[in-house]
């Protein structure tokens, strides 16, 4: 009996510790890279990318050419796109809830790099979701998977990492 009680207490402790560890995880993780273009060209490439209707349909929230900072926002993101972009840690009590509203806010900063012949590009995305079951709703800060940020970095000209068929492990002789 004591053993079962100890196991129950230990399980409860681990479950609560896991929830608090998830709560401490940062929800915004910036991605960055160096584009092989000067600052003005890189900034223009990013603005042009978002100006194309066939690309990511994000609305411009702010455009500051002086600080070379762009902020974009998109809401009402479909479930498939959302699941590619972010992961939301919901409490066990809300596992049956459905995604009701989703919002992504993206900040892109461009700075000189390499003596002005290249640009340092930083992209951070803030994801927030509302889950609902009936009339009950829960707001959740979500964590990026990096896909959206990598798409924007590629549009800026930042070389993307490539995976080779031999990468991923070493072989013993």
Structure, briefly:
By secondary structure, the protein is α+β, with helices and mostly antiparallel strands.
Which helices and strands occur, and which strands form pairs?
Elements: H1 2-24, E1 31-35, H2 39-51, E2 59-64, E3 69-75, H3 79-85, E4 86-87, E5 98-113, E6 118-133, E7 136-144, H4 147-156
How many helices? The count is 4
Can you give the mean pLDDT?
79
Radius of gyration of CA atoms, rounded to a whole number: 21 Å
CATH class: Alpha Beta
Low-confidence stretches: 2-22, 166-173
- The helix fraction, in percent, is 25-40%
Q: What is the assigned CATH homologous superfamily?
A: START domain
Question: Structurally, how many domains make up the residues?
Answer: 1
Provide the CATH topology. Answer: Alpha-D-Glucose-1,6-Bisphosphate, Chain A, domain 4
Query: What string, H for helix and E for strand, traces the elements in order?
Result: HEHEEHEEEEH
Shape: elongated
The span between the termini is: 53 Å
The CATH architecture classification is 2-Layer Sandwich
Please give the largest β-sheet. 7 strands, antiparallel
Q: What class do helices, strands and sheet pairing give?
A: alpha+beta
The overall strand count is 7
Strand content: 35-45%
Structure description:
By secondary structure, the protein is an alpha+beta fold. It has a single domain (26-156), classed as Alpha-D-Glucose-1,6-Bisphosphate, Chain A, domain 4 (2-Layer Sandwich), CATH 3.30.530. The protein is built from 4 helices and 7 strands. The protein has helices at 2-24, 39-51, 79-85, 147-156, and strands at residues 31-35, 59-64, 69-75, 86-87, 98-113, 118-133, 136-144. Strands 1, 2, 3, 4, 5, 6 and 7 form a 7-stranded antiparallel beta sheet that branches. A hairpin with a 4-residue loop joins strand 5 and strand 6. The radius of gyration is 21 Å and the shape is elongated. The protein starts with a helix and ends in a 17-residue tail after the last helix.
